[in-house]
From TrEMBL:
Ranges of compositional bias, category Basic and acidic residues: 25-54
Annotated segments matching region Disordered: 1-54
Organism (species): Lasiosphaeria miniovina
Biased composition annotated in UniProt, kind: Basic residues: 1-10
Name this polypeptide is given: Uncharacterized protein
Record lineage: Eukaryota, Fungi, Dikarya, Ascomycota, Pezizomycotina
Length: 151
């Protein structure tokens, strides 16, 4: 059933538009230009941040990956990040340590999952692709970049 709007006596019909249209005159345009120039100057005077803004969820994910890296490592992750930025000899050593960390992440990703076989559950890896490993590495490097290199 469709309801009809009933207009009361003396009530004007409404169309959703403003009661009276607003008009801009030449001086209004000029004053708007002046305000725009002032805004542009204030924007130009503010220094730009050298960091990208990231969401809270991404920051939390990066932090958790960093904690996992520092808790599992038999080396200092801060030194590894700094070694990656230094000379080639220390860089090679740092790359080996990063590879060990990523191997640890893959091995640690084993979780119990339901199975259709003779047993109800079986253990399987949750990290099964190179892309997931790369994302883990990106999150660790992202945290290190924002908290170690930009101090």
């Amino acid at each position: 059933m469709i309801k009809k709007r009933v207009r009361r006596p003396g009530q004007r019909p409404t169309s959703g538009l403003p009661a009276q249209p607003t008009r801009r005159f030449a001086n209004d345009v000029e004053s708007q230009r002046e305000r725009d120039k002032e805004n542009e100057e204030s924007i130009r005077q503010r220094p730009l941040s050298d960091r990208r803004s990231i969401s809270k969820k991404t920051e939390l994910s990066r932090y958790n990956s960093w904690i996992e890296c520092t808790s599992s490592a038999q080396f200092d992750p801060k030194e590894v990040i700094l070694d990656l930025c230094r000379d080639p000899a220390s860089k090679e050593r740092a790359v080996l340590q990063v590879k060990k960390f990523l191997q640890y992440c893959v091995q640690k990703s084993e979780a119990e999952r339901p199975s259709l076989g003779p047993t109800e559950t079986e253990f399987s890896l949750t990290i099964t692709s190179a892309r997931t490993v790369f994302e883990k590495l990106k999150s660790v490097v992202g945290y290190a970049e924002s908290h170690i290199l930009h101090v």
